[in-house]
Amino acid sequence: MAAPGRAVGLGEGILIALDAIWANKLRSFLTVVGNVIAVSSIILVVTIIQGVNAEVTKIFTAEGADIFNIKREGIVFSHEEAMAMRSRPRLTRDDAAFLRTEAASFDALVEQADGSGSVEYGNESLGRIGIEGRSWEWALIDGTGLRAGRYFSPPETERARPVALIGLDTADNLFPGLDPASAIGRRIRIQGLHFEVIGVLESRGSSFGFSQDEFVVIPIRMFERIFGTRRSLSFAVKPQGPEVVEEAMDEARLLMRIRHRLRPADEDDFDISDSSTFLDLYNQFTAGIFAALVGIVAMALVVGGIVIMNIMLMVVTERTREVGIRKAVGATYQQILWQFLVEAVTLSVFGGIMGITLGYAAAAGIASFTPLPFVLVTWSIVAALATVVGVGVVFGIYPASRAAKLDPIAALRHE
Amino acid sequence: MNDRPSEPRADTKEPVIKIRDLKKIYDMGRVKVEALAGVNLDIEQNEFIAIMGPSGSGKSTLMNLLGCLDTPTEGTYRLRGTEVSNLDDNELATVRNREIGFVFQTFNLLPRATSLHNVELPLIYAGMSSRERKKKALHALDIVGLDDRADHRPNELSGGQRQRVAIARALVNDPAILLADEPTGNLDSKTSYEVMELFIRLHDEGQTVILVTHEPDISLYAHRVVTFLDGLIVKDELQTPKRLETEAVPG
Lengths: 415, 251
Ligand SMILES: Nc1ncnc2c1ncn2[C@@H]1O[C@H](COP(=O)(O)OP(=O)(O)OP(=O)(O)O)[C@@H](O)[C@H]1O
Ligand SMILES: [Mg+2]
Prior knowledge:
The structure holds two protein chains of two kinds. Chain A is an alpha+beta fold. Chain A is built from 15 helices and twelve strands. In chain A, strand 8 and strand 9 form a beta hairpin. In chain A, helix 1 (10-23) packs across helix 13 (333-369) and helix 11 packs parallel to helix 14 (378-404). Chain A is elongated and about 105 Å long. Chain B starts with 16 loop residues before the first strand and ends in a 13-residue tail after the last strand. In chain B, a hairpin with a 4-residue loop joins strand 1 (17-27) and strand 2 (32-43). In chain B, helix 3 packs across helix 4, helix 4 (130-143) packs across helix 5 (159-171) and helix 5 packs parallel to helix 6. Chain B has a single domain, classed as Rossmann fold, CATH 3.40.50. The interface between A and B is medium-sized, with 27 and 31 residues. Magnesium ion (MG) is lined by residues 59-60, 181 of chain B. Adenosine-5'-triphosphate binds at residues 26, 28, 33, 35, 53, 55-61 of chain B.
């Protein structure tokens, strides 16, 4: 006679719960405000960070995954570090020559320096646009490609010829209404000096909504004539293959230490990094944000859960008679427990779904007013739903067990 | 509803209900209330018993024990040959679900649920499929003459109709015994008559009916009247039941 009571179907439980939620709309909403806030904020932040991630990854991987950089200064986290880096030796063309001859694992090394200044053609004048100095090897590693014309040659680099490649927007702005290809051969002025346009680059795309195509590229020796040699160069290195990136970076480090006559105990006085270095750093940074967020959200969920628990205790008291009726017709402990647990979880999930909707609405709103892209992150929905289910179970179990333990006769007498 | 598929599990000679020296004592700290002071009672299949007695004499206490809503302090209770006085809460719930139909004075319907859902409730906890459930519940509503009120909620029904829905719920699991604690206590005399007509008809169809009442006219319909006083049976008499004056069909 003692067959264990089968649980009422999940659908049945959810229907009872939805009916109860609907019967007390305002109270149900107020009950789950904690969940709504917690879930919407986590969805919002995750969506924004994912949007930023997409952009950042695009930037850092744009120049090619296997290329690494040798620079005088690395990323700094404090004023002291920044000051310390100022005393490091500059990277010079002689360093570049040394590395080119000594390094066995390099395919190409590009000397580079960046500045900004004015560019003019006829009456058109562009102020403060990017001026990039490059050695000829840049042609080997440039991932952008040419729309028209050609890159500069080794002699043009070394003899500091006044030739320039221009970005697509710069072409448009200097020669409005003309086909970019017709820019080839025209004479423009960079910082007041005459240059011949020998190439127009393909679009580098945009990041965070800003165009990346307003720049000119000139031979590095020409760049030094304009801006002087006091500023440090940086080197972009293409290893001989993706599989030797680590090896090439180690070799670069070793050669630089020899070149700078560092002793074993000395720290590097230069910085070697590839795109993953920046991505790692960036990911650490976002992980920090996530950790802080998780803390805040966890607090909101605990508060929300306690509210749910209190409301459920109230609901159990209100519906004591109902429990009495259900027990009188044969509901077991587990069946009543299940019913109220499903109700608590449904309530909690109801808040979670409102939070997801609100979070995405806010993210979509932000995306429409800013250059940030809107990225729908599936795992954040799954995680949010799993969390609110967990909250429902954890904070619903006590009220549900109170209901399940009710004595049928006493419950039926309850007014 | 008299076509019960599962016949008595033990000796067919054994009565449906066999109670020996049943006691229920409420320990109120300083005083102990003996609500039942040692009751012996046998009830055979298809009896129609009226339980009478003054207020506080222990009628409801007995009904709650018979209905497995409560457990006795002492004594034994065999229901269809199975000892049920020492079952745990979940086992009692299962017995209530399978063997008992209970009708309360205050109806005890779920206020937000339709008649159909109220009647289905025992079958939900029995784990029956929704199609089968609906079929059985509609049949039970048909028996009490309320199949056309299946979608009504309790507040859309009269008192008599509510009690008939409650009776349909009590019948829906084909119970071994139908217990009713003052089922007409909240009804006017005309409606009481309709409800009693229903009990009589169920009894005629083979149901075992045990009914608590304060009203002598109601007890006249029973075959046997058991009278309580201070927790003990003081009178247990057979009688020729009064027949209904008309063969009116309720509805
Ligand atoms: N839960 C309880 N706690 C303490 N005493 C109780 C409890 N339930 C019933 N009693 C006592 O047991 C005795 C019998 O009560 P019971 O409800 O069985 O009477 P009754 O015959 O049904 O009365 P009525 O005709 O008024 O319904 C009464 O003295 C009552 O006070
Ligand atoms: Mg009573």
